[in-house]
Amino acid sequence: MERRSFLTAAAGVFSLPSLSAAIQNAASAYRRPKLKITDVRTAMVRAHGLQVHVRVYTDQGLIGQGEATDSAAGVVPLIAGFKRMLMGRDPLNVEAIFESIRTGGIFAGAQGGQYVTALTGLEIALWDLAGKALGLPVYQLLGGKVRDRVRMYCDSQHHHPDDPQAKAKLQEIEKMGFTAVKFDLDEGADPNRWDRVNWTASNAEIDRMVKEVAFVRGVLGKRTDVAADMHGRYDMTTGKRVARELEPFKLLWLEEPVPAENVDALREVRASTVTPICVGENLFLRHGFREVLEKRAADILMPDIQKCGGLLEARKIADMAHTYYVPVAPHCVVSPIGTMASCHVCAAIPNFLVLEWHWIPRLELWREFVKEGEIIDKGFVTVTDRPGLGVEMNEAAARKAQVPGTGWFEA
Ligand code: MG
Hints:
alpha/beta, TIM Barrel, 411 residues, Enolase-like, domain 1, disordered N terminus, 2 domains, nine-stranded mixed beta sheet, binds magnesium ion
């Protein structure tokens, strides 16, 4: 007899105190899965930039998968170097593993960059593994979900008024169901530039940027949000002028008008405008975001969850931001595996705004990359209830983008 039906029957026979005793006697202690890490291997894919896929193997056959990106060129040898700190360990103690590798690398660059990105790919694989071992979706391990669907925005480069395709392409993005788009304002080849090295924009260059935003805003419906990215390439005078001139368009945000590394400069730009300023795709760990929040230097944070430290670290960054009433709109340029990993975080944090999708030029690869097929439905991802991340790589499709000359989960 199943425990539940036994207890129901027992409730009919015994009084409540007896029922309580029956539960005490019938319940056996929860047996936590015991696993040991036996190997960690990687594979490199080039789709939107470079992605490193990470697999953690265990003595009971369960495998966890993760994905790292952007500052990923040195991730493969870094993860090989982490192996000695992983073999034989219990993969379910994710924080303990993360903290030991992070603090173990203090003199090896563990404050940011490729070291943290390597640790990120591993951390995500450990969460996938933990979810599979416990039979729970990852969002459940991050505190449970506050929303079922994650709003996506489409990063596209159809913003040139002279491009005869641009209007139709933007309308197609809206028809796909997206409620927000983003495009790049920085243009190194702009003929209006006087100097290829100095990043003070000329009047004509700023006019070009304003025209592009006006064009995109004019094509899209009023309800669709528009964000624009300056990639941290400009100086303060330009950042301030562009943010001010774009105020009438009510952008969802202006991204990194100046680099995020000088927080005081960033704060000065933010204080000069009502255009919301968004930063953070090149910041690492909680520590990278602390000063930005303390100095009120940004309106929106955009940690890259496949780069900044992983799923729990992103949750911690979002929670810090939440105490300042700052929303989070994560940067995301990875495959459906990393995107679904990000969605587990976005589903779990109250102050989530919108998540990036950057694979419209690789639509065919995107749709076949995981066995589950397309994960975006009319501009939203419904976070899966399957254990772990809930998506599995379609090897044949993923290998179409394998970096030539590299191994495929061989070491
Ligand atoms: Mg950006």
